[in-house]
Amino acid sequence: MRTALITGASRGIGRSIALELGRNGYRVAVNGLHEERIYAVVEEIRQRGGVAEGFCANVADPSVVSKMVEMVTARYGAIDVLIHNAGNLQDRKCGLMTDPEWNSVLDVHLNGAFYCIQRVLPFMAPQGGDILLMTSTAGLKGSVGQVNYSAAKAGILGMVWTLAAELRRDRIRINAIAPAALTDMTRPVIEYLMDKHAKRNEPLPAFWQVGEADDVARFVGLLLEQQDPDLTGEVFGVNGSQITRWQKPLPVLTVNGGAEDFFTAWKHREEKQ
After folding, report:
1. Is 149 part of the annotated catalytic residue set?
2. Which of 26, 39, 149, 192 is the catalytic position?
3. Whole-prediction pTM value?
4. Which residue ranges does the record assign to the Ketoreductase domain (predicted)?
C-alpha cells in the first residue's frame, strides 16, 4: 500500500484528490490548517473503507513541515507520493500590494513546495515516488492583480523542470498541474464575474468556464498509475474533461548581429503582425 501526503487537503481540489486516492487504496496523510476540516476528510475516507490520518501543519513554516513529515513517516514508514496543493490568495495591483501580502502567497505556494519536497525526499528516494505540484495559468501567462500568485506559480514551473532532471536517477517523477475548477478559492471570483457579465448581457469568458475538483482528482489518480519513467517534468492543464499539455518556453527570435540588428528584426516582426 502506497502512502500519499497531500497538503491543503481539507477542502477543494486537495479534498477531492484525498478522497480519490483513498478509494484507490492509498494511505492518505491529510494536511491542512483547520483540524475540524482535516478530520472530516479523514473520517470520510475511513467510512469508505480507506486508510487516512490527519496532520494539521502550516507548510509556510519549515520547522513545522519537518515535524509533519517525521510524524507521517513514523506512522507509515515512507512517503511514496507528495502532492503540494496548499494555496492562498492575496490579490492586489502591484503598486498597492503590501509586503505581507506578497510574502504570504510566496511562502505558502513556493516556499511551502520547497520545504515539503526537501523534507520528504529522504523518505522517498529508496523506493522512488511521485511529486505533484499545483501551478496555474497565472504562472504560465500572468494574471493582472496577482503578481504574487503569478510569480509563485511561475516559480513552481522552474522547480519542476529542474527537479525532473535532478531526481530522475532516484526514480522520482515530478510534474505540475494547472487546474481550472470551481473551489472555495475560485468561487468568489467566478461568481463576481458571472454577475458582472450577466448585467451586461454578455457570456462568461471561456477562460472562467471551469470544471470540478473531482475532474482534477481523477486525472491525478490516473497520472499516478502510469508506469512511464519519462513521464516527468511535465505541466498539465486540467479543466473538466479538457486536458492540456504545456511545453517549456521556446525561443521565437534569435539574431546573431548584436543589439542593433536585433531591434531591426524586432521592428520587422511587428510590421508583419
Report:
1. yes
2. 149
3. 0.90
4. 2-180
